[in-house]
Structures are given as C-alpha cells and as structure tokens.
Amino acid sequence: MLVIDEESLSCKFCFELLQDPRVLPCGHSMCTRCIMANINFKKLKLKEPFLQAPVLGNQTKINKLYGTTSDQSNKKEGICFNCPSCNKECKVNHSEDVPSVFPINYDLKSTVENYMMEREKGETCANCETNIVQVECEDCNSRFCEECFTSIHAPKFFASHKKAPLGTILTVGKCKRHNNHTCVPIDEHMEEAKAGMSNKIEQVDQDIEFLYVALEKIGSLQTKLVSNQETYEMRVNTMIDNYLAQVEDKRKEILDKSQSEHQERMAIVQDQYSTMSGLIENMQGIKNAFEKVIHFRNITSLITAEHQIESTLQDLNCKQLDTSPIFFTQKHNPSNLDFKETTISKAVSQLVFDYPLDIKFNICKECISAKPTPEEEPKEEASLAPSLSSSVPKQPESIVQFEKSFSNIVAESLKDEVPLLMKEDDDEYNVPTTKKKKIRVKRR
C-alpha cells in the first residue's frame, strides 16, 4: 500500500484537504472556495480604493488615480492574487468566469477522495494492505495485522522485536515546515511550559518580596534623612540667631555708652563755651572802663576807678579757666575706626566660611543590593544605614565644636579693644590742665 502524506493533499491557503481543487497558471492547486475568497477580497478593495490610503489634505493634488470607484469597472486591468505556494501572480478579468479560467485537477481530486475513504475505513496492514492493522512493532515502527506480524517476525533475526497493542507506542514525527526539527506532543510541551512558567512565577514572587523589603528599608532611610536634615537646620538657625542676638546686644551697649559719654562731653564743651563767652564780655567791659578812666581829669576819680578795675581783674584771675579745647587722640581718628571695623568683618567672614557645611551621610549600598538572610534579619536596621542608627546623628557633633570656636571668635571680636569713648582715667583722653592767666597793673 502506497503511503500518502496528508500535507501533499492539503491547500496551502486554508491548510485543509483540497476541496474541488483547481490548477493555477503556475501549476499548483488551490481550493475553489479559497480562490473565490481571494477574488472577492480584491473586489472589495477596488470598490473602496481610498479606505487604505492616508488622509489627504485640502491642498493635495492628485496626479494619477489607481483602481476604480464603486460606480466604475476595471475591465482592462482585471484582478490579481498570489499563489500561496510560490507567490506568483494569478490574473482574472472581470468578465471571465472563475471556474472556466482555472480547470479542475481531477487526478488530485480523486486522490483526495480515496485518501478520505481509506481514512474513514481504517488503516490497513503495511504488509498485506488488505487486513486492518491490529498490532504494531516497537522496533520496526510499523503496524501489522496478526498474521503478517507473525510471518514477518518468524526469522531469528526479527525474533527480538516486541509486539505492542495499537496506540501504546508514541511516535515523534518531523516538523513539516523546518528541516531536522522534531515534534513533541502538545500535552507534553504544555506541561513543560506550565512547569517553566511556575518556576518563573515563583522567582518573580521572590524578587518582588525582596524589592518590598528593600523599598521598606529605603523608606525608613528617607525618613531618617529628613529628620536629620530638620535637626541640622534647626541647630544652625538657633546658633546663628543666638550669635546675632549677642552682636545686637553688644551693638546696643556700645552705642548707648557712646551716646552717654557724648552727652557728657557736649555738656562740658558747652559749659566751657558759656564760661569763656562770659569772660570775654567781662574783659571787654574792663577794657571799655580803662578807656573811659583814661579820659578822667579828676585825679581822685581816676585813682578810685583804677582800684576798682584792678580788684575786678584779681577776681577773674582766681578762677580756673580751661584755655585749651577738648580734642580726640589717635584712637578716635576715623582711619583707626575703619581698621577696627575691618577686623570685625574678618572675624564674621571667618565664621561664615569656616562653617561645616560638608556634612555627609553614609549609606551602605551592599545592605540594599544583597538579599537578606535569616541571620541578618535582626540586624536589618543597623546594616541598612549604620551612620543613622542612633537617634542623634554623629556628624552634628562638629557643629557643637564649631559653636565653641565661633563663640571665641565673637567674644574676641566684640571686646572693648576699640575705645570708641573717652575715659577720664586715660591720660590720652584727659582734658588739658587749665593755665592761670594773671594780669598785673602797674600804678603810675
């Protein structure tokens, strides 16, 4: 019995047994229904030629029109479709009838019909081709009836072959589309695929669980970082505010003291000014009296006036007069004050630029990337960020040290090194001693 491959009797378009096969111009056969399906699809595209084209703009000009509209025919060009076996074009005119263009392949049609009848009847023995198969040989990979299997395997050479009932031997065929590829049963492949997918799902679940643990750790670390940053900013602001308050208090103290001493000095100067103005007026009066006495003709009146004027001059000479004005020494010169202001500015600049702003928080990346083990679970928090394990961060201790040094800088800068005010116990600031000026009058 000739064994026929079912693939050779199948249509390359629908992959089923050929039904009413017709010969195409290229020599291959195709079902009549598949040919009509291709032609009807091409006709549908010709009736609506612009459905597959891109949308045209308002200013687009059409130079050529391919195909036809629904109310026109395309008799000259016809309809073309490709052979599913060799991909060659097969043309059909609109006026031609499809059955008359592609003749029926009667030989192939008869072969298909016989194959279908044999398949319905049952498989026959591979040796006698008459009886229905009853057993199969595991070594020959063939099916026989009982009589043929016994006769063929009677020789000693075939005596070792094993007989098996039908359907117990699983045969693995070759792939019809790929050379040197073997096929496996779909059930077996499905079970293997399910097992592989189950393993992958389990692995993905483990990865997701690990990511959730890492995400929780990162969230905890983020909270600690925010808390540390808030504490850091609060301490910095508090420290700067305290120093600014100290500077403001010192500034107010200096200005108040300066204003107080300024008022005292102004009172002294004004008193001196008033005293000296009065003395000038008295001396001017004595001068005028002398000028009048000179013109007296009575000697008695002249001598009396002279004694009175001399007594008045003696009273004036008994007073301590400050003939030299108050002046500022070199410490109160504007240039010296500018130098002191520069010194304070440098101290403040040292405060700003020496401030420890390079504080960093260390994070252990290995603790995040590595999967946690049962032994590492209790140390989960410490392994994640050892620098943040304590409630008070380690780095801000440098702020405490800096506060001490900064306090020393501010204290040195705000000392009374600049004597902005005059002090009476300082020789350089004392008012010069008063010189007594005596006026002597000789009698004539």
Automatic annotation (TrEMBL):
SUPFAM superfamilies this protein is in? Answer: RING/U-box
- Compositional bias segments (type: Basic and acidic residues): 373-382
Regions of compositional bias (Low complexity) in chain numbering: 383-393
GO MF term list: ubiquitin protein ligase activity; zinc ion binding
What domain of life does the native source organism fall in?
Eukaryota
Residue span, B box-type domain: 120-166
Which keywords describe this protein according to UniProt?
Metal-binding, Zinc, Zinc-finger
* Residue intervals of the RING-type domain: 11-87
Write one Pfam family the protein is assigned to. Answer: zf-RING_UBOX
Under InterPro entries, the record lists:
TRIM45/56/19-like, Znf-RING_euk, Znf_B-box, Znf_RING, Znf_RING/FYVE/PHD, Znf_RING_CS
Region: Disordered; residue ranges are 372-393
Query: Protein name, please?
Result: Transcriptional intermediary factor 1 alpha
Organism of this sequence: Naegleria gruberi (Amoeba)
